[in-house]
Amino acid sequence: MTWSLFGKLVQLLMKQKMEYRANFFLNAIAQIINYGASYLILWLFLKRFETIGGWSWPEVALLYSMGLFTYALGAAFSYVQMRELEGHVRNGTFEIVLVKPVNPYFYLVSRGFNLAYIAHMIISGSILIWTLIQLNIEWTWIKLVYFIIILFSGAMIQAGIMTIIGACSFVWVRTAFMFDLFFRLKEFISYPISIYVVFIQVIIVFVVPLAFVNFFPSTLILAKESSSIFQFGSWLSPLVGPFCYWIGYKLWMYSLNKYQGAGG
User: Fold this and answer.
1) 3-state SS assignment for residue 52
2) What is the pTM of this model?
3) Arithmetic mean of pLDDT over the chain
4) CB of 238 within 8 A of CB of 150?
5) What is the Cα–Cα distance from 65 to 104, expressed in whole angstroms?
6) Which is nearest to 14 in space by CA: 109, 83, 114, 102?
7) 198 contact partners, CB below 8 Å, separation of at least 6
């Protein structure tokens, strides 16, 4: 599949979504209100205790916003597609994708592109800009380029993980519980990971590398000392995203080759 065809498929899907504008905008407003409430709870928590693990409200808001923004960017191309893959495999409807004369992975991703995540990006992006202003960060060209790269890398980490879960659908079929586990783990990166016990840190650094989405990059951007078990994560973060997504794609294609029809 060429990039031009990929873009065309996404464009057609966006036109389809815009046929029901009222429903789309109402859903977007609901998402903004929902996450706005999450920010409010976080603010009230930090207002009561002032800091958590040495991180102030704007710093924790930076962590949360980076996590949400990169999730929205990555999930737009992976969450719905991989979540619904279980049903396609179980019902035998995935064969429709296989008869298309294009790469099945990129066809599935483009056809399931979720424009609704724009609401996540609006609220998280707005708070993200606010936090960067509040924190008076001393920007350099290197730090600015690093920050832009890390947003895409964080999106690729989360998309890669969800792609890996989707790949499991070809083998185990039932994978909904794995998405539940992923979202449970993702909640840990809403706060500095240094506040957790070593076991939790090992899980979100080495097993499911969500700490590279926001915590390690934030320690570099904010010039904070990292008290976690892994001291060099900030410099590895830009590489973890592409590597994680590459692993996810390769595993997805490998699992697809093992697919034998309805029921896995």
Assistant:
1) strand
2) 0.90
3) 88
4) yes
5) 32
6) 114
7) 229
